[in-house]
Predict the 3D structure of the following.
Amino acid sequence: MSGHAPLEQTVTSSIAAISAEPHDYPFDPATLALVIIDMQRDFIEPGGFGAALGNDVSRLEPAVQPIARLLAAFREAGLTIVHTKECHRPDLEDCHPSKRTRAPGVQLRIGDHGPMGRILVHGEPGSDFIEPLQPRDGEIVITKPGKGAFYATKLQQKLSDRGITHLLLTGVTTEVCVQTTMREANDRGYECLLVEDATESYFPEFKAATLAMVRAQGAIVGWTANSSQVLAGLTAALSDRPTIRG
Ligand code: TIU
């Protein structure tokens, strides 16, 4: 049929690739966003929501430095950055009763008063981002009541406004909010890569299973790569700019 461009010319204008599993991840920095999921005190520090559920919160710490390096690189290159935070209105109108009451025997429920203020409530100290990963002006901040970052938020509109088609997923926890967001994004047509060392879980086996399942079947949900591979791909794509240190 004349007049139609070949499909590959219409779906991507990628100029570089990240070495990834199960195969290289092609991307254009102009349409790429770094998405940092829920790096909040309530999940990462003692006394918050994660600890109240009985988890060893120290297990999430290894993701902080890889995320910080990616964040610095995206800032240096002037690329799109998204920070999400899971939290609720003080009146809990946006918290389904099922979410608040499901786990019996937890020490503190959503909305209860804990050492970092009310658990997972917007504006409380525990709901804030950890100090090394605080957003800066101009970066997208999404407050979300669910596990997925697209549910009941303006994330898709904000990405669309900026022409973003490709997402690098990082943050916590791998199999809960990160995987839910990645699946939501995949179903919306985004090309997603989960950064292996920039995400953590309270359960190492759940992290490993998530990485394996998203990239299985020819990247059925998306790609995985470590942060060094991402930074190498980004440096190559921005080769006319200063080198990004990983
Ligand atoms: N409990 C758990 O693993 N995670 C969450 O409740 N929220 C996020 O993953 N952010």
Remarks:
- DSSP finds nine helices and ten strands in the chain.
- The pocket of tricarbonodiimidic diamide is lined by residues 38, 43, 53, 86, 147, 172-173, 176-177, 202 (CB under 6 Å).
